[in-house]
Amino acid sequence: MEREALRRAAKTSLISFTEFTYPRYETAGLHRQIASQLERVERGEIDRLMLLVPPRHGKSELASRRFPAWYLGRHPEQHFISASASFALAEDFGRDVRNLMKLEEYQQVFDTRLAEDSQARGRWSTNEGGSYFATGVGGALMGRGAHIFLIDDPFGSMADARSEPARKNVHDWFSANYSRLEKNGKLILINHRMHQDDLSGRLLAQQAAGGDQWTVVELKAVSPAGDALWPEKFDSEALARIKANISAQDWAALYQQEPTQEVGSYFKEDWLIPILDLPPRNTLNVYGAPTTPSPPTAATTRCMW
């Protein structure tokens, strides 16, 4: 697409905006899937979006850097809250969004400008009265409102995700700040799965019990047919090497969005049934135990593969 046509398309297309403001960006199929769902949020077609994406597959570039700038270009009067596991990371995203909005390329697409007296890297305002506010998960949000509340990776490490107190703290923070949403406000959660009871898992369990209904985009590093999600960067050989060097539990959660129970997923203790009357020892060489089908997941998710 020629440069001028790309600039014109950037107003309505997140991918075109990303390519126009970041010429070295290499768009892949999964990025178009992510962008199309973020655009549905902007258009008001959906208001609860959960993006489950493997590590290092470009989710933050689109969701936490380009999307806030593009959204505020289209809605300069609205308020955007962006949260990450740590305040430092959230503030870095805020700096990147702010600097993007100062670029000449950005100003060739949108009329939105930053207010002169409010340009701190993690919190700033637009001339039209909108705002961007960055915070770490656990940070205070009193007095802040959000038309868009985006959370990118609520856990800083697998150790945090495997800690029951840490998981509870993340969920409690989320619940306490749910009230920050403006009328018709929208939630975006983008991460890779880390534990069955991580924030995504809890929200899906609430969905099954009648809570918020989420549009779930579940992207696996390797599809059921064996195809790599982003072969240009992580082909089958690269993914096989990653799989060989991490635990099966981490691979299933981080890369396949299928977190398993810490006690094991092949045999569960409650499947084992005591048998009191065993046959004579010399007539039995192999012992076994009956199994039952594993229970269904808490909520049905839509896989884009």
How are the secondary structure elements laid out?
Blueprint: H1 3-10, H2 14-21, H3 29-43, E1 48-52, H4 59-74, E2 79-84, H5 87-102, H6 104-109, E3 114-120, E4 123-126, E5 131-136, E6 146-152, H7 158-161, H8 164-177, E7 181-191, H9 199-208, E8 215-218, H10 236-245, H11 248-255, E9 302-303
Report the average pLDDT across residues.
Answer: 89
CATH superfamily: P-loop containing nucleotide triphosphate hydrolases
CATH structural fold name = Rossmann fold
Q: Are there runs of 5+ residues with pLDDT below 50, and where?
A: 291-301
First-to-last CA distance:
27 Å
Q: Given this structure, which CATH class is correct?
A: Alpha Beta
Number of strands: 9
Briefly, what is this?
This protein is an alpha/beta fold and 305 residues long. The chain contains eleven helices and nine strands.
Characteristic terms for this protein:
305 residues, nine-stranded mixed beta sheet, Rossmann fold, 9 strands, 11 helices, globular, alpha/beta, single chain
Structural notes for this entry:
This protein has about 300 residues and is α/β, with parallel strands linked by helices. The chain has one domain (about 5-265): Rossmann fold (3-Layer(aba) Sandwich), CATH 3.40.50.300. The protein is about 40% helix and about 15% strand. A 9-stranded mixed β-sheet has the order 3-4-5-2-6-7-1-8-9, covered by helices on one side. A hairpin with a 4-residue loop joins β4 (about 125) and β5 (about 130-135). α1 crosses α2 (about 15-20), α3 runs parallel beside α4 and α4 (about 60-75) crosses α5 (about 85-100). The longest helix has 16 residues, at about 60-75. The chain is globular. Residues about 290-300 have low confidence and may be disordered.
